[in-house]
Task: structure prediction
Amino acid sequence: MKPEIYLQVDIFAVTVLAILFVNSLSKLIFSRFSKLFRLIIIFTAGALVCDALMWSFNGKAGSSTATVEWTVNLLYFVFTELMSFLWFIYVYGKFYMEDEQNSMRKIAFFSIPLMLGLLLTLLSPALNTIFSIDADNRYVRGDLYFLHYFVLFGYIIAASLLALAKGFKEERKENRKECFAVATFAVLPIIGGLSQLFFIESAFALPFTAMSIMLSYVNLQQQSMDKDSLTGLNNRGSLNRYLSRKCRKAGQIWYLIILDIDDFKNVNDAYGHTEGDKTLIKISNILKKVFGREDCFLARYGGDEFAVVLNGCDEENISDIVERLNAAVESERKRGLHAVTVSGGYTAYDSDRIKGMQQLISAADRQMYAQKNKRKEEKKRQTPLA
Amino acid sequence: MEFFSQISLYALPAVLLFVVFFDSTKNVAEKHDNRYFHALIISVLCCMINDLAAWIFNGAEYDGAKIFSWLFNILYMLSIIPLVAIWLLYVENRIRDGKKRVRGKLYWTGVIPLALCAALICLSPIKHWFFYIDEFNLYHRGDYYYVPYIFLGIYLVASLALLLVRERKNLTREKGKEFWLISLFITLPLIGIIVQLINYGWWVIWPLCTISLLVIYLNLQNKKVVADALTGLYNRGKLDKFVYDKCKAASERSWAYFIADINDFKAINDVYGHTIGDEALWRTAESLRQTYRSEDCFIARYGGDEFVVICDCADANEAEELIKRAEAEINSSNELNKSPYSLSVSIGYEMFSDKYVGRSDELTASADADMYRRKNIKKKIGGAVSSGEDMSKKEAL
Result:
């Protein structure tokens, strides 16, 4: 293939990465992971630029060309190795990092192959380990060339395996999906890498990696879009999407529960919005705990309303779960939650009886208000007695 | 050889387009915008596929190869025409926010140049104006090979200009920004056309088109990240960030933080259900948008039934004036909608001053306190006929 083709492929990939980088600066929700992600973008883009330069200088005459070739190739190998290592750390951190202290030691341990790879690369000018530049200023593969590939793909494949392992252990369907999405990162680089290994002519490994990065970026953005920033539950938009998808499938039995904090307005009015927010966070944590083990979808529906979609359970089960929820709220209340109770109503989705999402929500809503009114009546009855 | 070069060049853009396509189908709820965007992606993919197909047969010597060469080269050039049309429709749709319009005469005259262009392309086997295939089945550029590209490029730019002139009056600031962004990124493929016409070895039109689509897609996503799903106003996350940034330093222009709260929203929700409750939220958002339209205002949904407006405001008098206007707007919305409940809001505010520099939460708290003070005054005035009790009476009946 002509060098200008490589050049065009590289320029395209770098442009895409640059766009993602700029976008992530202002739009990606801030976390230490988004910082790591940006570093991965930078190293990949750097490697692509080196790749483009490599192809444009390869085999050109002149003594300074050799120097350029050496530097550019060295940088290329260093960048790609760093990129794959950071990807591994990114995945590891995302799924396995719990306490800071211990994990730093682990990261140091994981970086041993990286150090070896970097060492071999930097020895290349002296010992031709990974590559060398011949008298015609042409790039030649070194004897230990395959070791570079080992390091590179070792990390990328290990990261995918970590994500897969986590995915199989994960109980909640949503989280499982996320793990598997991360695991697919390796597919494109492997395809590109294999084609590069067998036909020296093609150079797809890196540009395909750039596409993988773009894929995971889009995933990351989608996730932050679906989450409610206060409680970390799904937000209303993603609930709507989920329900409309689910309502189109007939035959399955599942429940929609709508929960509403009783007298939440009073908490807000009496203690201010900050306390109100804290209450919301506490309640959503209770929801996560109670429903965590079920196959379900949790969302914040509106101000003080939550929605739960429960799969694979029956009438008996569900009243049991609602009982458990009330008990959990009650015990939290004793531990200083502002005087708050939760009313909930639920409805089974039955495609013969209920048409569409709106009807389903209204039905669950009615149930919830019936429950709420019943509770109010009880309160009224109790107060005069007391 | 050319074929393999081309495949390598188009592999990445194609993968990228597929990713964007499938990612955007996940958002089932986003109705109108998606249709044109999908069509746009598909038509760019079509152009690339036709281009590749034309190269497969280039120089092949078996029987019938020549016919396919002609066919795919013509198809390739033809496939650019729907792309231009869809791009225009997409831009129109976005700046009109999916609202239907009456399509006048001008609209249909717009089809004529495109049809003419298509007809001329189809004449290629007879008149070798744009390209021809020689006896060895090799592709050659014709004498006027640049004409269709230049023509379609000019057509696109001219139509966009026309669109802008016609829609200028209805264009809000935000929509205007969007228009310029999309237009700016149409220039990328146009640059691609020029590069490709001058330099034969650079097939950059479609990769550049892909990049344009990527930017537009990310822009769409970004908007969703900061928008509240129900009202379309900014959401809490964006508000927090905005206030934090605005409070970083003292500002030369004085501005105020308004907080609006729907009165007895809980009662509306309890009596009429969530669907009507949502409608009340939506109407409040719309009224706020109407009130604070002309000013450079930032409007967000703060929480359940609370809204925040941040805008330039000279002094307390102007702030009071704005509050009155918002209340009037909501009253007229009540008359207009004939809803079973009567919507009203309490609005409080706080002027930004030096003491709030770096203390955005204190500013929020002061505005909040002001709002509750006013709400309580209202309640006292309202006395026994407060709408909350009114509603529970209705319920009892």
Notes: The beta strands of chain B are 131-133, 139-141, 255-262, 298-301, 306-312, 345-351. Residues 65-95 of chain B form the longest helix (31 residues). The radius of gyration of chain B is 29 Å. The first strand of chain B starts at residue 131 and ends at 133.
